[in-house]
Design a protein that fits this description.
By secondary structure, this protein is an alpha+beta fold. A hairpin with a 2-residue loop joins strand 4 and strand 5.
């Protein structure tokens, strides 16, 4: 399931109306990061797997893991205790190694207002 503002370990409540809406009951202490490959590489499952393998050792050192991938998209889970600076260094470096790629946190900012959710405070 692909959902913004959530990470592995979060507990949610969802109404039974198939609306896709949910309420976060508690946070699992993890940061979700999405890494998008450049358009030219986005259709290649092999390229995506290659990028995933190159980033994996650094993420694992922080206690994180690759949680999912499709052609052109990698989704990582990293404990918030690793620190935002360490997480950002890894993904900024990866974006430089793979020109045209981009990354974003998916559970740090409110998707409507853009303001920090501050659940880690």
């Amino acid at each position: 399931m692909y959902a913004l503002q959530l990470a592995a370990g979060d507990t949610i409540r969802s109404p039974n109306d198939n609306s896709g809406e949910f309420e976060v009951i508690s946070r699992g202490g993890n940061v979700a990061v999405q890494f998008y490959l450049a358009e030219g590489n986005a259709d290649s499952v092999q390229e995506t797997a290659s990028v995933a393998l190159s980033i994996a050792p650094e993420i694992e050192l922080l206690g994180g893991r690759l949680d999912g991938q499709t052609a052109g998209l990698l989704v990582y889970t990293v404990p918030v205790t690793a620190g935002f600076s360490a997480i950002e260094q890894i993904f900024q470096s990866a974006a430089k190694r793979f020109p045209g790629s981009q990354w974003q946190y998916s559970n740090i900012y409110d998707s409507v207002t853009g303001e920090a959710l501050n659940w880690w405070s």
